[in-house]
């Protein structure tokens, strides 16, 4: 009887292999440390983002996006956000780089610049809202910014990561820098700049 059952099992048609309901999504492998190190960032990509933002400039981008008040620092953040929106999965091999768009609530790599954060959100909301109405100028401007970043990263250079982060800390109070520890105090340079402007 067992032999017959075993023979029947051997002659049974093989079960079809089930396809997963959703294909396997790409995943990120994060480092064990929390701070952002130069080894975590592909610097040529970061320099490409920064150069594209500098080349576009806030005045040009303000016209492209039709959003008043977009500053140079917001354009830098938008260059990185545009890459998240339009980037291919291979572009996300250094996720720490994207923390340089808006910092972190624990001050790593620097405090969140709330003014920049809010401007970035407003630009994206406006782009999506207008895009739904068929006016895609803002979405196209973000796409052009991403394309420009990719072209520039091939040959542009810039400061090292420590210098970039130090610059963000220096300007943190002027951008409304905040963390779980509270508001960022003005540095001596920022305090003296305000005194000169008020005189």
UniProtKB/TrEMBL annotation:
Residues 174-199 are annotated as: Disordered. It comes from the Bacteria. InterPro entries: DUF763. This is Uncharacterized protein DUF763. It comes from Phyllobacterium bourgognense. The lineage of its organism: Bacteria, Pseudomonadati, Pseudomonadota, Alphaproteobacteria, Hyphomicrobiales.
């Amino acid at each position: 009887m067992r032999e017959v059952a075993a023979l029947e099992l051997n002659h049974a048609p093989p079960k079809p292999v089930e396809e997963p309901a959703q294909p396997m999504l790409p995943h990120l492998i994060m480092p064990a440390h929390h701070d952002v190190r130069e080894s975590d960032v592909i610097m040529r990509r970061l320099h490409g983002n920064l150069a594209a933002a500098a080349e576009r400039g806030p005045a040009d981008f303000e016209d492209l996006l039709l959003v008043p008040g977009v500053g140079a620092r917001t354009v830098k953040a938008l260059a990185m956000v545009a890459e998240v929106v339009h980037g291919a999965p291979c572009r996300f091999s250094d996720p720490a780089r994207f923390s340089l768009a808006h910092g972190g609530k624990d001050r790593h790599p620097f405090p969140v610049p709330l003014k920049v954060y809010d401007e970035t959100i407003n630009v994206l909301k406006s782009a999506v809202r207008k895009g739904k109405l068929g006016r895609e100028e803002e979405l196209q401007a973000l796409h052009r910014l991403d394309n420009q970043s990719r072209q520039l990263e091939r040959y542009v250079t810039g400061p090292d990561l420590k210098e970039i982060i130090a610059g963000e800390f220096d300007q943190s109070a002027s951008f409304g820098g905040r963390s779980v520890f509270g508001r960022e105090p003005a540095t001596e340079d920022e305090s003296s700049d305000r005194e000169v402007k008020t005189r």
